[in-house]
Amino acid sequence: MVTRVMMPRLSLTMKEGTVVQWFKKEGERVEKGESVVEVLSDKVTYEVEAPASGVVRKILAEEGVDVPVAETLAIITAPDEELPEVEAVAEAPVERVEERIVASPAAKRLAREYGVDLVQVRGTGPEGRIVEEDVRGFVEGAKVAPRVREVIPLTGIRKTAAERVSLSARTAPHSTITMEVDMSNAAKLREKFEFSYTDMLVKAVAKALTEHPIMNSTLEKGQIKIFEDVNIGVAVATEKGLVVPVIRNADKKGLKEISSTLKELVEKARDGRLTREEMSGGTFTITNLGMFGVDVFTPIINPPETAILGVGRVVEKPVVVNKKIVTEPMMHVSLSFDHRVVDGSPAAQFLQKVKRVLESPNHVDLT
To answer: For the domain 96-151, what is the CATH superfamily, name and number?
Structure first.
């Protein structure tokens, strides 16, 4: 019996996925339920299992190719079964619009000599006519153009991240506010119990979201939907790009549990072992660039969420305490929020709560 391995739909908005790697080669035996291929979509990697036992007779999509949902990735048959006629999945061809190029004979001759496509040349003659000097100028410009060392295809996680960032910038009017936090008490807690600053940030944000639930929401079809669950995503940089594993029900977890969960998720993220469930369902995101020496930046909201918290480095700075100048570890936090959902005042109150929790002298709010 001929069985097709299809590109699965991993989310409601998924239109296509990327073939990451094949676990089986053509001609190899495969058992029902055995992983055949790994695919990627919406920053989620997923192993597609064989729907039936047999032989992988034909692989239709090469690694790195983007394939639409429900498209055939491979065909499994019985060992001696006849293979139906199938075509390999290819990247969609780019349609080129034919243009009428108006150029002088001298310009055309020079273009042929240097192998220049006249479509790329801007004409300065009457009615945009390309003259010899236009081609000569194009050639001279090409000589000083920077050389390309490497071409990196915009696929997989990078492509997904680019699409989501573009969507966020197009649809959500961003507004960003920044506060400075005294991290001296958090630093003591970090030294005593070996918690990371990110662990404490997750806890502080979770507490703030319970008091300011409007920040834990999404705008969908003209309605603001406030989530009951507090699921905090933490952006993690990997070799393949940025991924956002999610700590579920962070408001119900203690700092110790948050720390162990985050360590496990970060390790899996960097090894490329995150599951679909571990990267979905987020309601708020934290992104930390402090380890790179960044003080302040403007983070972009992770759709369909309402807000994201950007975190800078912790650095010793002179501050005034009890009318005396002392040095304390200080940190900037930047909150970007969707101004369609939240105004400046409630956003500032939310950020104030995050600040108060992190500065808590008795660490009560952080445990």
So the answer is: E3-binding domain (4.10.320.10)
